[in-house]
# Entry
Amino acid sequence: MTKEQHRVTLEDVAREAGVSIMTVSRVMNNTGRISEETRTQVRVVAERLGYRPNRAARTLVTKRTMLIACIMPDITNPYFAEILQGVEDTAWQEGYNVLLMNTNENPDREYAVLSQLDDSTVDGVIACSSRISDEQLIPLLRKHPAVVTINRVLPKDVGSIVLSQRHIGHRAVLAAKYLYQTGRRRIGYLQLVRGSSSFTSFDFVKTLEAEGITIDPAWCRRCPPVWKAGYEQGKMLLEEHPELEAVVGGNDLVTLGLMRAAIELGRKIPDNLALVGADDILISSQVTPPLTTFRMDKYEIGAMASRLLLLRMQGDYTYREMFFPEELVIRGTT
Amino acid sequence: MTKEQHRVTLEDVAREAGVSIMTVSRVMNNTGRISEETRTQVRVVAERLGYRPNRAARTLVTKRTMLIACIMPDITNPYFAEILQGVEDTAWQEGYNVLLMNTNENPDREYAVLSQLDDSTVDGVIACSSRISDEQLIPLLRKHPAVVTINRVLPKDVGSIVLSQRHIGHRAVLAAKYLYQTGRRRIGYLQLVRGSSSFTSFDFVKTLEAEGITIDPAWCRRCPPVWKAGYEQGKMLLEEHPELEAVVGGNDLVTLGLMRAAIELGRKIPDNLALVGADDILISSQVTPPLTTFRMDKYEIGAMASRLLLLRMQGDYTYREMFFPEELVIRGTT
DNA sequence: TAGTTTTGAGTTAGCGTTATCCGATACTGA
DNA sequence: TCAGTATCGGATAACGCTAACTCAAAACTA
# Structure
């Protein structure tokens, strides 16, 4: 199909149906008072001519794009894929389409993406697990009338928030405490590297210290949130610190990478090394031994983000914070 | 931020800079002849005022949305997630954003999505592994000036094509032949259910018959392309046909589901039951035993689709067909 | 019957850009 | 010096739609 065809406009329909442009517009939008007779007449003509309203023209006057932007760190991580599925399903049900902006865990790209975005492009923004600093993120989000963040706490006026853990790092501390209860003493930590995270291995060590659990900072490693990095960092960590009895991973992917490294190093899991992951992706239940991790409703997190965004887009700027409880699923690695 | 603020327009910049609207427009688009002096002057004012061009207004006159639609059956399937990553990265590099339309393997939803889409919404469409029939799909795609399909052959005038297997079902036949070579005789098939697929278990049986391999049609099952379905259908299949020595799966997810069922039924893999998957997602290499499957460059498939689409969007309507070879990766399940 | 409301549909005026045409300088060469 | 030709930038008219207002005719009301 070439580009040179004539687009069917309201005017064409109006002329053909012998009514004014406004009448056709009203019929198409089901607004205003139109007699049943005229209505069906216009509908028939519009159908016959194959009329489709021009989205840009409509947007220009209504100032609504019917689009929402969803900024994701990495859609090949099943954790985010499932959240995105929830976002898209819910948005779709409400007549919105999703502009996907995948940043590949790259803060520079995330910054570029957010800079490019403005309120003439989308009606709202969902920023999931942002990897950039508050200083960069907040001004960029303030440009938008409706914002929801996932797994990131921002000032209440910026937007609503969906969280899957009460505080950053809360999960890792819980995992370590559980491992301690099961008798492990030398507990390592594969902390996710991201531009933003305020929770560091320093906090990990300190928080657990307060609980009477001593962690050697040398047992903690920073690690990009992908499988390969978990494998590589994990291998180094275990080689340098064979005394480790357990490791807490920042997400399932890196924990699984580390598990592979451990197996290659001859470690027997869980007897020789215990592992706890973080987000219960499908693969985690299917490996041998299956990974102990935290379960949460990822789809529902995404769906809720869409719902909260919709409220804001409809002008309800009440600050809302939804907390999704996560549950430790004990499987074969502990 | 409320909606009531005044948007900075070309007019504001023009007034402030003491030039005409057209001059500002030219500067913003780097078109036309503008003196260096005026150019920087306008740039400074635009920057100070925080001017951002209105995308809808621009689209209305240029007829370009800078958006492409990507229709995906299921982004929680890592196979598609990786393709989507390739699509998005490449589109982004060229200044395009991606409208994600995830259909959750639901043909009705895919039909609805495609019906809603028109050329005033996006500049091009990538339809990945469409689940609807040619009769439905072709007219819907013809509305668009630029189309690329992934894993779906259509008339050459509809759009370009990216394929990861030479013919539908080619992979399954290859897998069966390989299993036969390794001594397996009673080979089952978990065929993916989709609205469209022209390759049926009937073809599977017939094609292999021609190769001298006899398959009992009762060993073939249709199965939705998700893990759970593979597990359930697999369990039924293995219970009803304990004589099976091997099964070919339509994709890795269902094969893995079947593998779980087989293990629960006490089958030893690969001695007691051999398995071949289809798309080498990460999880397949991490389970025990690791899955024998077909490897292909999923990211590159998506990236290529974007590149082919770009060519069409730039007016090069040459039909192109890219074939990505896939390679059998022999691991622990055969 | 005259006044009032309701109903259905037309008219006008943008929304914020860019395409296109056109005019005013300034520069060129003979 | 004077046409000829770059060079720069303004004026105008769309693009396709909807908000807001207007108004005639029909349908009530007292």
User: Anything to note?
Assistant: Residues 170-295 of chain A form a domain with the Rossmann fold fold (CATH 3.40.50.2300). Chain A has a mean pLDDT of 93. The radius of gyration of chain A is 26 Å.
